[in-house]
Amino acid sequence: MWSDETGEPHKMKSSYRNATPFTTKDGSTIRELMHPAVHVSLGVHAQSFAEATVEPGMRTQAHMHRRSEEIYHITAGTGRMTLGDAEFDIGVGDTVLIPPGTPHFVRNTGSVALKIICACTPAYADDDTVMLSDASSNQK
What we know:
mainly beta; single chain; 3-stranded antiparallel β-sheet; 6-stranded antiparallel β-sheet; Jelly Rolls; globular
């Protein structure tokens, strides 16, 4: 544990219970666990870390990020990932790399909430997110 000269722990952590959920551009529910726009006082400057939730029977809207590289790590549920021209099943313990400029979306194919930890660098930004039509993203 890091501590300062007084022996007190540094405030370099956030709390899940304090991360207010909101709906992002792709339609998923997000909790920003670490993001420069919210946690700069903790020292976060270049990346973001969030939990996305997709409810059973739902899917995110097809989109891509011009600059951000994303890594998804599945912590609950099952789904089907569309990543560029590839489509594959995802489940607990799977990790997916989403390079910048790659169209993607995810469907919850299970009966419980699909929970995805999302790490982005540079940090997630709405102005870096390009929403795509069904035709341009090869959706089925």
